[in-house]
Amino acid sequence: MHSVLKLLIFFFLFAQAFTSYPGYKLENVVTSDSGFTGDLALISAGPYGNDYQKLALYVNYQTNSRLRVKIYPANEKYYEVPFVVQVSNSTVKPTDMDYEVTYETNPFSLTIKRKSDQTILFDTNTNGSDLNGLIFEKNYLELSTNLEKDPILFGLGERKSDFVLELNQTYTLFANSQNKKKNQNRYSSYPVYYQFSKASKTFHSVFFVNSDPTDFVLMDNSLTFKSIGGIIDLFVFTGPSFDEAANQLSDVIGKPSRISYWNLGWHQSRYGWKTLDIVKQVVNNFTKLQLPLETIYSDIDCMDNDINWTFDPVRYPQADFRAFVDELHNDHRYWIPITDIQTPLIHDYLPYTLGNEKDIFIKNPVGNPYWGILRHGPCMYPDFTHPNSTDYWTQILENYYNKIPFDGLWIDMNEPDNYESIWPKDKYDFPYTPGNQNLDRHTVPLECMQYYSQEIDLHNMYGYSQSRATRFAMETILPQKRSFILTRSSFIGLGNIAQTWTGDNDSTFESMKESISTVLHSNTALIPMIGADICGYSGDVTEELCIRWYQLGTFYPFSRNHNHLFQREQLPYSFGDNVTTIIKNYIDNRYYILPYLYSLFEKSSREGNVIWRVMLYDYPEDSYTWYLGDQIMVGDSLMILPVLESGQTGVEGYFPNDNWYDWWSGKQIMEKLTNQTHGLHIEMLAPIESMPVIIKGGSIIPTQIPALTSAESRLNNFELIIALDPQSEASGWLYLDDGESVDIENKYTEIKFTLSNNKLESEIIKNDFNIPDSASLHYLKILGIKKVSLVIVNGKSVDFEYDNKLYILEINDLDIDLNNSFTVEFTEN
Ligand SMILES: *[C@@H]1O[C@H](CO)[C@@H](O)[C@H](O)[C@H]1NC(C)=O
Ligand SMILES: *[C@@H]1O[C@H](CO)[C@@H](O)[C@H](O)[C@H]1NC(C)=O
Ligand SMILES: *[C@@H]1O[C@H](CO)[C@@H](O)[C@H](O)[C@H]1NC(C)=O
Ligand SMILES: *[C@@H]1O[C@H](CO)[C@@H](O)[C@H](O)[C@H]1NC(C)=O
Ligand SMILES: *[C@@H]1O[C@H](CO)[C@@H](O)[C@H](O)[C@H]1NC(C)=O
Ligand SMILES: *[C@@H]1O[C@H](CO)[C@@H](O)[C@H](O)[C@H]1NC(C)=O
Ligand SMILES: *[C@@H]1O[C@H](CO)[C@@H](O)[C@H](O)[C@H]1NC(C)=O
Ligand SMILES: *[C@@H]1O[C@H](CO)[C@@H](O)[C@H](O)[C@H]1NC(C)=O
Ligand SMILES: *[C@@H]1O[C@H](CO)[C@@H](O)[C@H](O)[C@H]1NC(C)=O
Ligand SMILES: CC(=O)N[C@H]1CO[C@H](CO)[C@@H](O)[C@@H]1O
């Protein structure tokens, strides 16, 4: 290489490495009980120009565990994320704050520590590092925090990534339907991360209230936030447990909305059911084979010429279709149609004419509706931040509902997708480009205007704002029912409104494995109701993969099978009787644990808990759990070890130091070791018909005999599966209501079960739900009970079976009314 060129390159690199923008100077600090304010004055210009000279700093102590920091232009209008944040500023000092905030004035920096253990939660002091100070320009914001060396961070979805985010990577938030590579941004944006501190073994989290296209650059000792709009507005949550950090976030963005019981049943979908007759056959086949089926989806197959809200007169005649859906409803099943948001320009087509009349389409910068291109040519995009869009959308949905009454909606392509950007140009020209990708490709150009703000600010929120409008519409159409809205694109806060799935995936082992961290990360953003298309969407699935995916997928919070038109069938019965039997076991098992799952979701909607958990959350002291991303706790009690590679007939799991039992056989797998920090690595057998499922000692899992629908299974008998912890104790919780009403006041039942000192007791916390007569507690199984000679139920001795090798006690033929409290005593002579 030419030496001058070398020198130039050297100079360039050298110059890059040491270019540092000190940021701002803090002046005029005014403190109050609830925090402090100050003025920030620019020290020297940032990288791309248009720096704000004056900024305002606002630090607000909101609760003992929550702090808000806001930095915004002092004298100019600015964009703030609408709808998501549900708390206001605090004016009083919290009683016992678990954080302290210090600052430097020149250059300005903030350091936030947890008071109780001095763990650094957020620290923008970049003095002595090659990180920049605060940069705040018209189209570029940058703020860095120092992190513990080799930090454990998770969140910042949606993408396929490891659960613990890889270091030295950039994580982009920009809703996108095209990216397929590891760590790239996908459909949704969740600007929140959690950090686990290896030093203090605690968790805290940080939520950036910013919806503009953003990069998070994660290095091995720092995280840098780079956004091309909005302001710096962040919440710091002190934890210190994972659950506390999640609950603290949920106080700000709202709890996950209460789901209907039927949402937890089996969802069957397919793109490629060309006629109504085929769909009828599917339903009949499920029944014939005694496979549970809750919900049927309709992809665009049923539409006339692919136009939403219409039915093909020959393949899906409306009257027949309606009769079919009525029949589904009679059988306590549900129907969910798809809709894409792009509105074609067709005369006399209500979505188009009404949208024009109400003037609610997204505008180009000269003020005319923007046209994109989808399947049938030009289309427009409703603007769901427009005040009249809710009326518009309600009218469209009502009109459709009156044709065929749906039970939920599947809203797709809402990144929003665009086959071709025909205006204004194909190149985005802001100075910095998150994700280093053409941001105008395949979507509405970022220069376009929505009512609330420019598209650049609202792009990441399109699916969220559509979900919000859909939620309002559903509440009008189906008042008093909990709505079900399955959206592909979402933003943090969606969990309070709707549900999601992981979008188009592939029929590969790799894609199945990747679904796990996507589901986990969405849970950390408090969108717990999520699953991937079981068996994969694109590509032909193999029998082996499909079995493995059904095994995993029946433990997703949301369980749906769906695939693409060109792919082979992957229904539970598409592979022959032997395979149907295997899959049926797992779907039946899902119905069996519905009372447990429903109770978990209730807890989530009350407190903000997640459903899918990694081992780290509950065993932070055990460093062997820290990077385990593929073995999952479903709630507090069930661990699953999915089989993620072809040809495997065993899976190694890590069992933290505790009691663990095999879910299927009841056999104890591990007994807590005394005086050990770590647990054991254990290889579990996993022949094709079986995925290891493990119950944690200390759990009481309420179950109910499965049936073909959840409405029927709810009439069946209850069972309790009890696994003893090292102190021979266990506890559990059952929540029941009608499964669909919005107003549940005085209509629900809540029972706490506790086992200790050889006595199982139920404590009725509330008993306003009418448990069907046919659903009594008829069976108990207790795992890990070392000795038993007599069992006494409500004072009367009863028959029992005891396996003194496996330490399993079973009591059959009980008839306990769960509406009343009961006791079961075990005597060991
Ligand atoms: C909280 O205070 C900040 C700074 O004064 C202000 O920008 C913001 O609008 C306030 N928010 C609410 C919800 O009052
Ligand atoms: C920055 O670091 C230098 C050297 O460690 C120190 O002298 C100086 O006071 C620091 N400045 C601030 C603002 O922390
Ligand atoms: C990240 O980059 C730093 C510095 O370039 C390097 O020392 C470190 O090993 C890298 N870490 C990983 C996990 O790649
Ligand atoms: C229903 O099952 C029959 C076999 O019993 C099969 O021939 C048919 O293809 C199935 N129909 C659908 C749509 O799956
Ligand atoms: C309707 O659905 C099709 C799918 O064929 C989609 O391409 C189109 O843009 C949708 N939009 C509307 C509102 O009709
Ligand atoms: C909303 O609709 C009402 C009634 O049609 C109209 O008066 C109002 O101007 C519309 N609002 C906007 C922002 O377009
Ligand atoms: C099911 O039976 C078919 C045909 O006998 C066989 O090829 C296949 O391997 C079996 N699959 C399983 C999972 O047993
Ligand atoms: C466990 O540790 C405790 C306290 O350090 C000690 O008293 C006890 O003897 C130990 N037990 C065993 C089995 O090592
Ligand atoms: C359940 O118990 C409560 C009080 O013990 C009683 O008022 C209620 O009628 C009972 N419900 C049923 C369905 O038995
Ligand atoms: C078609 C498609 O988008 N496939 C994606 C399915 O999901 C996995 C990740 O979960 C991606 O790797 C695929 O590219």
Automatic annotation (TrEMBL):
Q: Which residues form the Glycosyl hydrolase family 31 C-terminal domain?
A: 609-701
Among InterPro entries, the record links this protein to: Gal_mutarotase_sf_dom, GH, Glyco_hydro_31_AS, Glyco_hydro_31_C, Glyco_hydro_31_N_dom, Glyco_hydro_31_TIM, Glyco_hydro_b
Pfam families the record matches: Gal_mutarotas_2 (PF13802), Glyco_hydro_31_2nd (PF01055), Glyco_hydro_31_3rd (PF21365)
Name all Glycoside hydrolase family 31 N-terminal domain ranges: 75-216
In the record, which residues are listed under signal peptide? 1-19
What keywords are assigned to this protein? Answer: Glycoprotein, Glycosidase, Hydrolase, Signal
Report the residue ranges that make up the Glycoside hydrolase family 31 TIM barrel domain in this protein: 259-600
Family indicated by similarity:
Belongs to the glycosyl hydrolase 31 family.
Q: Which PANTHER family match?
A: ALPHA-GLUCOSIDASE (PTHR22762), P-TYPE DOMAIN-CONTAINING PROTEIN (PTHR22762:SF133)
This protein's name: Maltase
Annotated source species: Anaeramoeba flamelloides
